[in-house]
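Could you help me review a protein record that somebody else here produced? What it holds is a sequence and that sequence's fold in token form. I need someone to confirm that the token line plausibly describes how this chain folds. Take the sequence as given and treat only the tokens as open to question. This is what I was given:
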Amino acid sequence: MNKIRVGFIGLNPDSHWASTAHIPALKSLSDDFEVVGVANSTLESAKRTAEALNLKHAFANPRELVASEEIDLVVVTVKVPYHYELVSAALEAGKHVHCEWPLGNGLDEAHKLTALAAEKGVVNTVGTQMRAAVEVKYLRQLVADGYVGDVLSTTLVGDAGGWGPETVADLAYLNDKSTGATMLTIPFGHTLAGVRDVLGEFADISGRMILRRDQVRVTDTGETLTATSEDQIMVNGVLESGAAFSAHYRGGMSRGTNFLWEINGTEGDIQVTAGFGHGQMAQLSISGARGEETGMQPLTPPAEMYDGLPDEVIPRNVRGIYALIAKDIRNNTREAPSFGDALRLHELLDAIEQSSQQCAGK
């Protein structure tokens, strides 16, 4: 079986998400994938990356990459405002596409990309990698096997890390709501994808979004910027199972609870904790109690669930998505998180935002 040839749009060997998360994940799946090419903002940048990572091809621009017969799977890892143009080009070229979450800058772009992917009939996937975390798989199994009985409610509180009083120049764009890379879409959106995977779909959802810190200091330049992306998100809803849902995400980091997800049921309770609220890249710890038990006890996934996986949580979770992508491409299945899945997540986030605007009288 030939290896799936991967071309990256947006890959820098010295820093950034693609080199620290995607490349180690793909190396751990070397029987299935080979990274062969890259296109960056300039040909010179692509050449530097290709030389540093020993890639066969440095493309002059993304359109040259997506047109190449040497590429089977296009991976888009640039900032959100560029997703629509680049993913559209890859789909029009008939390539399989893996795009970082969020799929598009807003619901309209997500609708268009999902429709185009369906028309082209290629494998189309999105990087909501919390769904592939070993701990989330184990948690889903616990709930499905009746550890808590019937789920009555679930609650979340999370600190986003970013969207606090300070930032760095490379991440300052996160405070600009127009970029589509906000606290709602990134940490909350990723985590909501994991919640849905464990507890099922939402029947209803609404929320309030509040901007409390409108001035943010950029530590490496000393400048102060005006933030437009909300740093307080409060959400409530009802799952299709009838269980109640509530969440509060906060910008920055508190001195108390940084991530706590509780699932309360008729027979037991589960707590999931982590160091911060990005469920897609935080090491999750699970504990629980049921029946006559009065104190929480660790619920650790079986060791064999980690066999052959990277030790570090971020490439391990990203690897889980790529393993599903390989199956989908080779077997013409659709197990990996698809553009359709991403569209539903975009719809939920849009409902939260629309309800917040209605409450605020906008």
